[in-house]
Amino acid sequence: MRLGIDVGGTKTAAVILDDNDAVVAELIRPTGYGRDEVLASVVESSVELAGRVGITADRFDSIGIGIPGAVNSATGRVEHAVNLGLDGFELGTEAAAQLGTRVAVENDVNAAAVGAYRYVSSTGSDTALGTDGLAYLNLGTGLAAGIVLDGHLRRGSSGVAGEIGHIPVDATGVICSCGQRGCLETIASGSAIARQWPTTGTSPVHDMMAAAAAGDPVAGRIRALLFEGVATAVRILTLSVDVRTVVLGGGVTSLGEPLLSGVNEVLDGWAESSPFLASLRLGERIRVIPKNHPVAAVGAALIGVP
Amino acid sequence: MRLGIDVGGTKTAAVILDDNDAVVAELIRPTGYGRDEVLASVVESSVELAGRVGITADRFDSIGIGIPGAVNSATGRVEHAVNLGLDGFELGTEAAAQLGTRVAVENDVNAAAVGAYRYVSSTGSDTALGTDGLAYLNLGTGLAAGIVLDGHLRRGSSGVAGEIGHIPVDATGVICSCGQRGCLETIASGSAIARQWPTTGTSPVHDMMAAAAAGDPVAGRIRALLFEGVATAVRILTLSVDVRTVVLGGGVTSLGEPLLSGVNEVLDGWAESSPFLASLRLGERIRVIPKNHPVAAVGAALIGVP
Fold first, then answer.
1. Rounded distance, CA B192 to CA B1, Å?
2. Which residues, if any, are the signal sequence (chains A, B) (predicted)?
3. Residue B12 is part of which domain span?
């Protein structure tokens, strides 16, 4: 059995996969902030899930962790994970010491890409998935993709493969946290919407969509940028790596059908003016993982395989 | 011995590689226009080079052709090659019938990417070239890249991997031949410069550069767009597939040092305002193939391997 842990900014999700990669146990708990609390989230999740299936944590065939931030997957070191208060933390080594077995660590979007690949494989809908490739496009606080080609995660020569959120798309846009102007992430991400549509409610994304639906012109403009930005991400992923499947995930996808239909409307408009783009059938590449499917935790479990 | 043929819009270059992939014979001849002339260019080049090494063409271990256009590499069919007057031409089958052996056909930029990969490998400068990956960025009439990952050409699920020239980068730009507005190709390619700087001379690119160097403000603006466009291509290739090496090729690179230093100036400017981009060392990824190295023909020879 394999254990996968998705350490999120607020919640940690953990799953156990059986030998057929099916989820046989699952839990969600708060993450906490800083080294000690993040490590405790990982260790306590592992021990609790192990207990549920009647083993100790050192008996898992593999353990993998997905975490939002810059990770050295070769060493298990978290270089930076700003939202979790981590900076140069040897998460893999520390967790392994407490759990008594090797622990792999990976960026959470990359982990989710592996989980998404497993999910799409299991549906059998794309028989050439290996060679065609898949991208998992995360629309969370930021925008980033994880890319799986020939059945393997592509991290890239400096670990930034799929970081398309930092491709500038608007020369008149705002300065991004990366220092560039008008990055894709500044128009199509949770943080982009929170910046443009500050709210006292719990979700700027849902608030903005409700206001746009009610006819608010400012919200309508923000919504249009979001749809266009997601469509742009799909176009960039196609014209660079040409993956056949782009799986959408992350908090913004909780918008569901209105997001998908908005993005498809943009793509249809593009196809009308460009026979070339039309031939690429961008809309048909988009998939959405079912709500509550723990794709990043599943991917973390699979990445843990030695 | 392997034979590789690069069928260009005006010239056809052919090489023979020995068992160590070294070029042992080489020729250049005019291509001609239309099915019969293109096929004759291929057959006559093959027969002549075979004669030079004392064999008949059917004795080559493999024959491969690179050609500018949309190619079905599985069948050897050229779907479209506008500049050569080809439309739905079974080049692989026809050439094989005349030469008495199997003939592989590939898009010329993809072939050049394989040749560039071989070239960079042979210099031994990047010891992790396989996993780091390489892109060949062709600055010819158009702008497109060929991508080699894990030692293999990535064609993509619909054959458009590396077609970054059709990523729009200027919302106020001109309409591209693909139907979109402001594609990268409309600012950084031979055709982009010819459109913006029409000339009675033989080379709009060199004329424009000379005028810019002499202080012409319009030429200066076109030059700035060219430099920024090439830098943008390198950024896109890094933030999507994160290849460690981007090899520049194609007619526009005949500008040599002024092009390279102009692109590097743009990249340095970006690095100053973005620590993230600075950390990616984009300028250090750029390589140029020595002038007159027949990279596409060499790649075609290597692609011909069954």
1. 39
2. none
3. 2-111+294-303
Measured between beta carbons, which residues in chain B are less than 8 angstroms from residue A155?
Answer: 242
Q: Which residue of B has its CA nearest to A127?
A: B157
Are both A172 and A68 inside the same structural domain?
no
- pLDDT single digits (tens) A82-141: 889 999 999 999 999 999 999 999 999 999 999 999 999 988 766 788 889 999 999 999
Distance of residue B37 Cα from the nearest chain A Cα, in angstroms: 28
- Tell me whether residue A117 is in a domain: no
Six-digit token pair at A221? 């403009």
Identify which of A52, A148, A42 has the alpha carbon closest to the alpha carbon of residue A89: A42
In the structure encoding, which two tokens stand for residue A210, read together?
């409700």
Identify which of B147, B275, B280 has the shortest CB distance to residue A158: B280
What is the Cα–Cα distance from B227 to B222, expressed in whole angstroms? 9
- Please tell me whether residues B132 and B266 are part of one structural domain: yes
Name every residue whose Cβ is closer than 8 Å to that of residue A99 and which is 6 or more positions away in sequence. Answer: A43, A46, A47, A57, A58, A63
Token output for A290: 């079912």
Max intra-chain CA distance, chain A = 60
Radius of gyration of chain B (CA): 19
Kind of pairing between the strands at A70-72 and A77-81: antiparallel
Which neighbouring-strand residues pair with A166?
Answer: none
